[in-house]
């Protein structure tokens, strides 16, 4: 038994599973974008954070509506469902919603606004922050932004659990749809040197591309977006190797940018344009 062949089979199997994982990750990104899962999750998280109780025991979401509908929150996204809101934006929108327009310092106006809120977790938390701030608006802002970040961390945990369940289900569907059989795949790689060499070559090219062009990544938050495009390219190459003997040509086409995903900020657009010698 040749150790080189065993290693090549292992590389081929690992690369195949990598492509499948990237495909499933891409499916998650498509589903999340199409259904606005991140935006809806953030909206629901803010509602849970800011909703109070009416005298009859019902829910009073007036503070949530005032904050979420603020130009610094929902309006930073074209569809009104931002996937991410900076903590600074949240604190500014909240303070603006709380100030009652009376005379006095900004801190005192915010304090009066909090006092007028319906009972509930939001009022209790804000009253505690005000007492701790001791009249210092910067300290109050820091407490509020930390409170917001903690809420978003809990929301991230919920989304990660959803992603795990989704990817497990999607992996099963993809494996069944593509008839992925590890034993048969390993046997094919072992007995067919051409297929084994093609997969190993594709894996080497993928690894070399990752090393050679780290600057090509669009930026943070674009993992699934970038991975799905790379997977499509490698899948086309392997398909071309497999079907070339039957005179079947394989072409692949994918966009350079999808502008409704929320990852193409002005800074990212500028950097990507510079990499092509362009300006925006």
Rg, alpha carbons: 26 Å
Quick one: how many beta strands?
A: 2
Compressed to H and E, one letter per element, the order equals: HHEEHHHHHHHHH
DSSP helical segment count: 11
Query: In percent terms, what proportion of residues is strand?
Result: under 5%
Q: What characterizes the major β-sheet?
A: 2 strands, antiparallel
Terminal CA distance reads 58 Å
Strand order of the largest sheet: 1-2
- Mean of pLDDT: 82
Fraction of residues in helices? 55-70%
Uncertain segments are none
Structural shape: elongated
Structural class: mainly alpha
Plain-language structure description:
It is a single chain. With 280 residues, the protein is an all-alpha fold. 68% of the residues lie in helices and 1% in strands. The protein is built from eleven helices and two strands, in the order ααββααααααααα. A two-stranded antiparallel ribbon has the order 1-2. Strand 1 (52-53) and strand 2 form a beta hairpin. The model has no long low-confidence stretch (mean pLDDT 82).
């Amino acid at each position: 038994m040749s150790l080189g062949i065993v290693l090549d089979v292992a590389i081929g199997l690992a690369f195949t599973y990598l492509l499948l994982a990237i495909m499933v990750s891409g499916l998650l990104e498509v589903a999340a974008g199409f259904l606005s899962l991140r935006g809806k999750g953030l909206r629901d998280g803010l509602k849970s954070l800011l909703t109070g109780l009416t005298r009859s025991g019902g829910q009073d979401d007036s503070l949530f509506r005032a904050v979420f509908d603020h130009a610094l929150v929902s309006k930073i996204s074209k569809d009104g469902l931002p996937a991410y809101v900076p903590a600074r934006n949240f604190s500014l929108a909240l303070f603006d919603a709380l100030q009652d327009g009376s005379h006095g310092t900004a801190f005192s106006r915010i304090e009066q606004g909090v006092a007028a809120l319906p009972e509930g977790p939001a009022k209790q938390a804000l009253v505690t922050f005000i007492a701790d701030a001791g009249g210092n608006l910067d300290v109050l802002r820091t407490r509020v932004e930390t409170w917001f970040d903690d809420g978003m961390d809990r929301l991230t945990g919920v989304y990660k659990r959803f992603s795990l369940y989704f990817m497990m289900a999607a992996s099963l569907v993809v494996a069944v749809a593509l008839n992925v059989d590890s034993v048969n795949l390993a046997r094919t790689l072992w007995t067919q040197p051409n297929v084994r060499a093609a997969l190993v070559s594709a894996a080497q090219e993928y690894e070399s591309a990752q090393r050679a062009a780290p600057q090509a990544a669009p930026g943070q938050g674009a993992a699934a977006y970038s991975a799905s495009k790379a997977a499509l390219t490698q899948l086309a190459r392997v398909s071309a190797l497999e079907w070339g003997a039957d005179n079947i040509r394989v072409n692949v086409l994918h966009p350079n940018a999808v502008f409704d995903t929320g990852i193409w900020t002005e800074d990212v657009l500028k950097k990507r344009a510079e990499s092509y010698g362009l300006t925006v």
